Structure formats: structure tokens, C-alpha cells
Amino acid sequence: MRPFLKYIVDQIDLDGDLTRLKDYCFVFPTIRAGVYFRKYLTERLQGKYFWSPHIFSIVQFSEFLTDKVTLDSVTLVFELYKSYRKFEPEVRFDEFYHWGQMVARDFDEVDKYLVPADKLFQNLKDLKEIEEQFPVAEEDMAFLNQFWSIIVKEDNENDLQDEFIRIWEILGQVYHDFRAFLSKTGATYEGMAQREIVEKLEAKTLDIPFTKVVFGGFNALSNAEKRIVELLERQCDTTVYWDTDYYYMSSPKQEAGKFVRQYTKQWLKNKSHDWDAQTDLSKHPKNVHMVGVPLKVGQAKHLGQVLNDLLERNQLNIEETAIVLGDESLLFPVLYALPDAIQNINITMGYPLKNTPLFQLMESIVFLQKTRQDVEKKENPPAPVELEEGASPKAIPTTLFYNKFIYEILNNPFIKFFDREGVRKYMRYLEEYNMIYAYDTTIQERFTHPIYKRIFRKTDTYKDLLTCFSEVLNIIYYELKKQEDDKDEKDDSEEDLFDEHEERQLSIEREFIFQILRQMKRLEEILRDYKQLVNMDTFWKILKEILQSVKLPFTGEPLRGIQVMGFLETRTLDFKNIFVLGLNEGSIPSTKAHQTFIPFNLRRGFRMPTFLDQDAIFAYHFYHLLQRSENIYLCYNTEVGNFGGGEKSRFLLQLEEELALYENVKFSSELVSAPLPTKNPVLNRVVIEKNKEVMKRLHRYVTNPPDYEPPVLPPDSEEEVPERVTKTLSPSALSLYINCPVQFYLRYVAQLYELDSLDEEISPKIFGNVLHRTIELLYEPHQAQLLTGELIERIRQNNKKIERALLKAFREEKFPHHKEGKNLLLKKVILRLINKILENDRDDAPIRIIGLEATDYQKEIELPDGRMVLVSGTIDRIDAIQVDGEEIVRILDYKTGKVKLNDTKAALKYPFQKYLGKYFDDADYKTGFQAYLYSYLYWDAHPEQTIISGLYALKEINKGIRYLRKKEPLSKEFFQEFDIQLRAMLTELYDERHPFIQCEDPNKRYFFSPFKSLVKMEK
């Protein structure tokens, strides 16, 4: 096997004076390629003295040829903001930052692909002028016309499209102003530098400081890069070496050769281009082993076993071996799994800061502040709930913190070790008293170490947050240093503050802290230089993106031992033995969305890259791994239900169907899994007995529990015994019991809450809540009033009123991101649903609104042993309509998810007992069960009224209200049967002899459940 880079070295004419090399320039896709190239060059000239040539990555090459400073991405956005404000003076940086990043990336690509910016950003309504002035291929113009016809319809009244056109026409001016400003200040970005190099080469004003330029191993060149190559060929001695394989070059169906096949049409016969390094992986002997292993750690352990076996049989030369990770989070599991026999390891890839507990700690601190509730300042503030547990009566609470993030912070390994016992006791206390929120003062008083007092303190500005991060990280840093310094002096009998895994990471974590502090200092200087007063959210967004892009570099001998590298770092490199892990769809090829302001059709029309090109690029790099390798081990995660798990990469499927057919390829495929039980193949379901403690917890929903013991006050106390508060069972709780009793136990007995997540995109829950609340706000002033069709139509036509109600609903939901990204589209969907609901109401008018989000309906249900269970529900909407002159009350429930009813013709003929049995036994009909329970609660309070029940299925809003029992009024006999079956279910729930037993179909019942990991799932 002759590596590609060695082939390039062998082609260099080195006869005669070696000093010529100092004026040679070699350009490769990556810095790593240059390291190996230098190795092969040194080997060829071993024993000789010579000046090293210039060796660059393509990015370094562009920076070398320009006389300007390339700005980092954060500084670039701040500079772009200056230009944008000239055309939109009122825009705040907090609003601009997120999509400012997209615009900066788009400007970079506009320059890299030499797009005529004036044409791209031209007034979209000047179609004729564009067609006349901008000659393009007919196919490309078709894409442009398709886009422009969508945007510029004469009858277009879409606010989003108007906003897009307005911003789009500004962008052209911003682009020119931004580039002019950067040029004046001596700054640039990568695309701008490449475009200026092209312009200077075309004008022949660029002094080329090399006698020979060599490009090697490129695949998808930008238009600017292609033009630079062409112009250098004309102006100096230039050679381009192509690294290709006949297997994918010969077939247009092979996406790996998509770009290089295009280059052959232009450059195949050009003497400056060398195509002789081409291989043919279909003809050279290869051993391909494809292995599916559950879990990331499982892949790492399997790799360790295979490496150990090969080393013991002397079948592996580690100097010719590379481990390639498709998922960067596999790095540490792989390092710990490597056999002890492998002493030399060179890690090319860095470890991302975002995967460390330190980053998670910082994120938890931010969320702790975002979800806090500030206590209103009063002269005599209420005593904290935790007062009896030791809080000082003099401590004045100012803030309530959400327990989810208290747990996350206290459980973080870098916080827990400062007071392990104190953390354990406090967390047990929070669980025992079911504390959803906790006061800042009581948390601070429970812990003596200053790090807890620093974290659990109110933080309002980005400067406060920056100070908090700095102080906390410094405390941890010096504690780690102290532990490391004391480690050798420690007696073996002493208990370590770190477990074995944490001990091995002490020095690494200190380096992580140093890198984080360094990046924070840099960001602080940028904010000071640009005098930007950003809010805490924007500061965290910027810092988060910086930290997510920073990777801790590992030191090592770059050309010795086994190589561990990321997928894209393998470009131009060749190894005899290749081990690739993480080959799952979504990782290789990556499905990460390309965020851009330039729509797809415009990208196609102006020949800019789209997501369609991404797979071809990944395919080329994947097949390049195989070109000169002999022993290939390909591993993927078989764990179903997790991102990047279960589904093998499409590239593996291609190998199975195509490459495995060749005689020279020895192909094997296997699945590695834990042995299945043979004696008892039936799933052993989780069973939870109803012991005394479980029954005590269940009795929180009973108004007269037999085990209730009122608190005993001191004899001299003047206080009254507090009244016992009874919680209620909701329709959601009872439908969860029908779904799976164990799931009900986890949520409503053990009270393992599915805590709210902090979403920056509108989640289904936020979507539903905002929609419900907006409708409620629109109808609130008209409750008990007869709504005519004309009145409802006026409400529907009042766009400003609807918009105000929607914005108020978002504010109440504490969701400020509805103006960002795809949230704009989801917001538009909500507006359309509201409009459709109002249309339906107009058609059903006259309507009398009785209640919206009605919470006044609850009922005590007596069990056979006398216990009274409290059931209640919040009814989305209660109204009354006229049917044949009679007023009918409608109980309506809004549903954002799937709606399934047992209302076939046959089912409606069943007796009520059999008909309702379906709703009490089958969780698929939970929406109908909940609607009937709401109706039952209302009927219990108003038995004289005629009631119908319906569901507003928002996914099928055009069908209107889906009435249960085909809009048939629910009779007294119906509700009596519902009462019988409800009492039977509650009797079973409170029967100590009837344990909580896991359902028979956990894969289905727990598909979206947060408790999936706590129960047994079928394989």
C-alpha cells in the first residue's frame, strides 16, 4: 500500500539543488495531512539537508496570501451588527445575534462561490430585469422563477413573506457596507479573503511568493477555490493531485464521486492535473467486518476486545492502524477500553467542552436562574416552607429556585464532592416534602462551603452570570489542584473524593476549566470593546456556542502509535487497518441542518451548496477510508430508540448490497448482544406491592384517609392545627392508570415528575397551552353573553386583538422566543388554528360561553370501605348552543395529539356497559375517556342540563368538532354507568391486595414516556 501523500512526495523532482524546496508550496484540505506529508518527505530525503517547503491547509493558504486579519465568528457578528444597524437602527443585538450568525455564514458562502451579490439580493419584483441582466442556464432560471413566483404573488398578503422581502432587500446593502468596513479596517473572513485573492489573481496584482504550488487530496472545491487553481496554473508552476477510486468514479450512481467526476470533464486532459493516484477498491483484497453493538460503551468495549485479540495473535501493527470516531462522545469510552499493550496513542481529535460535567453545570446554573421565582419584597415576608427544618427566622427569602435544577447542580460531580453528606440529606428532604421550589436563604444556610452560597444567589445581568461562572470555576480549579497535589501524600486508607474514573480525569478537567475561563475572558473583552449591553439569555447563547465549538487538544507523538481521530480528520490519510465506530444514520452522514437565510431554490439557481451536497461529501470521505485499507472494522450502535442508535448508516447498506458482491472482498456481518434468557423468555414485568408507605402516598387523594395523623402542637401553642390539603386525581392521571398502572405509580404515587424542559422552540405543550389561553382571552369579555355569528366574525377579523391575545399568552407561558427561527412558522400555525376555531364557532352561533379553562368541577367518590376519593378536572371550554330550539351544553376538550373514538355504528348499538368498557380498558381511547370524565363532573353539578361532549382535534381542524356518540345527548343512564365503572376502577386502585403491575405492551405504552428507562421493555 502506497499512501496518497507518499505518492505526491514520490512525484516531486528532487534531482539537483534541494534548496528549491523552500520556494515550493503544498496545500492540503487539513493541517493533519501536512504532518504526514512532511513525514514522507523526510523519509525520502533521509540523511540529506534541505529547507522545508511551505505546507498549508487550504484555510492557512488563503490567510497567507491576504494581508488582512481573519476575524473569529463572534467578532464577525458584532461587526456585522454595526453595518446592519445603519439600515435597521432600532434592531437590538439580542434579537440580531441568532440570525446574524446565519447571515454571516451566508455572506461567507456568497463569496466562496463567487455569487454576484447584486443579483442575488436584487429587488425581487424586478423579474424581467433579472432575466435580462443575469444569463443563467435554463434549469437554474427555472429554480429562480419558481422561488420568485412564490414570494411575489400579486395577491400575496402573507406577513412573513413581506418581512422576508423587506429584510432580503436590506441584505444587499448590508453585504456591501459590511465588506467595505472590513476592508477599511484590515479585517476579513474566509470567503471574503478567497474572493479577493481571485480578484487580485485576475488583475495580476498578487505577488505569488512560490515557484511551485501543489494542491493535493481535494474533493468539493468552492467556486473561489476552483478559480484560484485555474489562475495559478496560468501564472506559476501548479500541479493538482486527485485522490480517487475507479469504483465510485466509474458509476454516476455512486454519490462519492459526484464532485470529482465533474472536475474530470474540465481538467482530465490538463497536464497540470495528476489523476494517476487512482485506486480500485473493488479489485484489491479487503477484509470487511461489520458489527452491530448496543450502546456507545458497548462499541468501545468490543473494539478493545478485538484489538486485544489481534495483538495477542501478532496480527496488528499499531503504527499502521487508525481508530475513526463518527461520534466524538465515543472518545473517552474508547480510550478506557484500549488494551494495556497499546502504550502509544495519538489523539488527533479534540474532546468537546460541551460533553463535560463542567459545561452541564454552567447550563444548569443558567436554567436555575431562568426558572426562578422572585419573592415580592415585603416588610414581613412569609416564612419559608422549610422553616421547621432549620432555616433562620431572620433570613429574608428573595428567590425561589426550581427543584429540577437544584437536583442537577447538587448531583454534578464537581459540586457534590464539596459536601457529599449535606447534599444527600438535603435532596432526601426535598423529595420527602415534595418541594417543587426551594428558597435561596435555606439552601445557603444548609451548606457551609462558599461555592453553594455563590451558585444559589439571584443573578440578573450577564455580568453577574459571568462573575458567578468565574468564581465557581476558580473554586473548583483550586480544589482539583489541591486534590492532585495531596494525592501522593494521601494515606491509602483515606477515602478519595473522586472515584477511579474521576481521578484519571483530574488533570484533564483542570485543563477544561482553564479553557472555559480563557474563552469567557475573551468574550468579556469583546463585549467591552463593542460596548454591547446584552441580556443574560444572549450572553449565554454566545458563550454556549463558543464553548460548544472549543475542543481540548491532546498532546502526543503525532506519528507514533495508534491514531485516534474524527471522521473528517481522515482526509488524504491512508491506513492499513481501520476501525470506524459510530456508523449510524444521523452521524455518518450527518443530518445536522444547514441554517441559512438563502432559500433552497435560490441556492440551486446560483449554484450554491445545499443539503443535497452534504451526503456526497460524506460519501467521498467514507469510501476514501476504504481505498487503500486492507482490514476494515465497521461498528454501529444497535440500541433502538436513541438518537444515532438502531439504524445503521446508509453507507453500510450500500457496502452490503454492492461491494460485498466482489470476490476480492471478504465480507462478514454480525450482531453482538447480551445472551437472552432461555428458561423464561416471557418479559418479567415490574410489580409494585401496595405496602403501608405506598398506601399512605395514595391517600393524598383521599379526603378521609384512615392513616392520617394530624400534627401535634405544643400545649402552650396558640396556633391552630393546619387543615389537611387533599390533592385531586385528574382525568390525565386516571388515563395514565389505564395506560399502565406502574406508570401511574411512578408519576402520581412516587411523584417522579416529568419536569418542564426549557425549550427555545415551541414544544407541543407550549403550543397547546398558548392556543387554549388565546381562545380564552378572546372570549373572556363575552362570558355569559350570547355570541352571535356577527360578533364572532368581528373578533375573527380583528387581527390586532388576536395578535395581542396571542402575545399575552406567550408572555404568561414565559416563552420569549416566538419571534425566532421556525417558531415564527409555528406561531403562524397557531394563528391559523385560532382563525379556524372562530370560523367554526361563527357557523355554530349563537353560542353562550359558560366557562373557559373551568376549574370549579370536582367530585368526592365514595369507595365501598367509606374512603372518599377526590376527582377533578379543568374543562377547556363549556358553552351552550341551540339545537331545534333547545339549549344544549357542550363540553369541549382541545387536543393537539391523536384522537381515537369508539364510535363505530356497531359500538353505538352496544349497551352502555360494553361501550364504556372500551374507554376504561384501552389507553388508545384516552382522549374520549377524558372528555367523558369532564362531562361526568359537569353533569354531577348540573344533572338537569342536556349535555353533549366533543373534541377539537387540532390536527384535523377542518373537520370541526368531533362529537362523541355522533352528537347524541348523554343521558342520565349513560352517566350512571360511567359512575359505576369509575368507582370500580378507583376501588381497584385503592385495593391493597391489587399491586401495580406493568402493562403487557410496554414498547407501545412507554413510547413517549419519561419513565421508559425505569421499566422492563420488550426486545
- Multimeric organization: single chain
- Average pLDDT rating: 84
Q: Shape, please?
A: globular
Share in helix? 40-55%
Number of strands: 27
**In what order do the strands lie side by side in the largest sheet?**
10-16-9-17-18-8-19
For the biggest sheet, the summary is: 7 strands, parallel
Structural class: alpha/beta
Q: For the record, give the distance between the C-alpha atoms at the N and C termini, rounded to a whole number.
A: 44 Å
Strand content: 5-15%
Low-confidence stretches: 124-136, 150-158, 378-394, 491-502, 675-682
The number of distinct helices, counting runs of at least 4 residues, comes to 40
Compute the gyration radius: what is it? 34 Å
